[in-house]
Amino acid sequence: MVEIIVDGEKFSVNEKGNLITELKKHNIEIPHFCYHEALGVSGNCRMCLIEVVGQKRPQIACDTPIKEGMEIKINSDLTRAVQRGILELEFINHPLDCPVCDQAGECDLQEYYMKFDKQDSQVSLADKVRKYKREDFGSGVIHDAERCVLCRRCVRFTQLCTNSYELAVGGRGEHSHIMLMNGKKIDNPYAGNIVDVCPVGAMTSADFRFKKRVWHLQKTPAICQGCERGCAIWVDSNKAKYQDSIIYRFRPRENSVNGYFICDYGRYSYKDEQIIKRDDSAKISALALDLRSNASKYDILVSSSLSIEEMSALKTLASKFNMGLYGFSDFRDESFQDEIGLKLRVPNKTANRIGLIKLGLDKNLDKKSSNLIIFHLGKDFEFASKFEFDNVIKIGSNQDADIVCASSYHRDGHTLNIDEKLRFSKGVFEPISPKICDIVSELMGQRVEFDINILKAFA
C-alpha cells in the first residue's frame, strides 16, 4: 500500500491496482466509459483524463501507474474542462432521446452529463450523423448504433470473456460503429452480459426493454438457483399498488464466486420464479391427517433444489413418522458445461447437490413406492417419471405441483455450491404460499426448529 494525494487529501491505495478502482474503494468517482474491472484497460474513450501534478498534460486515470506520493486533482478546473470537452465530443452525434431510451436511469453518459456538463449542444439535429437504430444482434441483444460511444467494452467481452469474437468495430471516424463479425449473430451462453457492460443505451435487452423504468425497480441481493455454481445476483422487481410483486430481471452481482457476470440460463430463470397464487391449505391438512394413521405407507423424495434448512426439516419429518427418505440430484446436463470462456456453468442444474450429499440424503429410491411425496423447487417435476409409484403428491413452487409452496426466492435458505462454499439467499419477497419448513411443521403438528450447528459444520 502507498499514499497518494487526491485534491489535497491523503489516501492509502494498492500501488499495483488500477487508479479508478482503487479510488472507487474510497467512494471517489473518476468518470470513464471504456475501462471495466473485468475487461482491463483500453484507453480509447479518454473520459477518465485527470490532472496529475508534475505532468504537462492531463493523463488517463485508467492507465496511470500508482506511485508513492503522487498527487492528482479530480475536481480542478483543468480536469473538469477536459471532461466537458470529451462529453461534448460524445454528444456531437448522440441522439437526444433520454426520455424514450431504455437505459435512462442507469446510463453513465446521462449521469456524467448531469454531474459535469449541462452545456447545450453545438450541433443541430439536422447535422447529426445517422446510424442504425434497432439491430437484432442475436441472443436477445438489441443494438442502437447512434447511442454508442465506441468504448468497445462489448467487443472486448466477446474477445476476453467468451472467446467467441462475434463483435468488431467497422467504419472510420464519425462513421465508426459496432458490427457483427462476418455478419453472424451473437451466439454464446453469456450474451446478456454484453448489455450489462455497455455503459450507455447502445446495447439493450430484448427481454427487458420497455417493460419497466429502472427507477421503479426494487433491487434485492440473492443467489441464483439455476445450477450449483451459486452466482450472486440482483433481483429487480416491482410491486404495483394492489398487485403482487413481479420479477423483471436477474442481473449479476459482483462476487468472488462469479466475478462480474452470470450466464443467460440463470439470467432468464426469473421467468420460472414468479408468484403462483393458489390456496392448497386444505390439501396440506388432509395430508397431515392421513400421515397420523398411514405414515408408514409413504416415502419422501427430496430434490437437490431444496435448501439445507428444508432438507433438515424433512429428515426430522421422516424420522418422526418412520418414513422412507430418499434424495435425487441427477439434474445433470453435460451440454450445459462450458469448455472455454468464463466457465461459470456447472452441469447439475440445481443449487444444492453438495448439501444433499453432506446431509446424507443421497440415497436413491430404487423400489416401487406406494405413496411418494416429492419436494422440489424448480420449473417442473419431469424427473419424477424416473420412479415407480402408485400415488404421488408433488410439493413444489411451480404450476405442476399438487401443493404449491414458496419458491427459492420467497424464503431464506442456505446451499452448498460446487466448491462447497456456503451460500445464503435471503427471501426477496414475503411468501404468499407456505414455505416448505412451514408445511413440514403442519404435517408434524409441531414447529420444526433448525439446528444452527449444521451450518457451522459447513462454514
UniProtKB/TrEMBL annotation:
CDD domains membership: fer2
UniProt keyword Cytoplasm, yes or no: no
Gene3D superfamilies: 3.10.20.740, 3.30.70.20, ADC-like domains
Pfam families the record matches: Fer2_4, Fer4_Nqo3, NADH-G_4Fe-4S_3
Alphabetical keyword list: 2Fe-2S, 4Fe-4S, Iron, Iron-sulfur, Metal-binding, Quinone
SUPFAM superfamilies xrefs: 2Fe-2S ferredoxin-like, 4Fe-4S ferredoxins, Formate dehydrogenase/DMSO reductase, domains 1-3
InterPro entries in alphabetical order: 2Fe-2S_ferredoxin-like_sf, 2Fe-2S_ferredoxin-type, Mopterin_OxRdtase_4Fe-4S_dom, NADH_UbQ_OxRdtase_75kDa_su_CS, NADH_UbQ_OxRdtase_ferredoxin, NADH_UbQ_OxRdtase_Gsu_4Fe4S-bd, Prok_molybdopt-oxidoreductase
Span of domain 4Fe-4S His(Cys)3-ligated-type: 78-117
Keyword match Metal-binding: yes
Domain 2Fe-2S ferredoxin-type stretches: 1-78
4Fe-4S Mo/W bis-MGD-type domain location: 217-277
Listed cofactors: [4Fe-4S] cluster
Identification of the protein by name: 2Fe-2S iron-sulfur cluster-binding protein
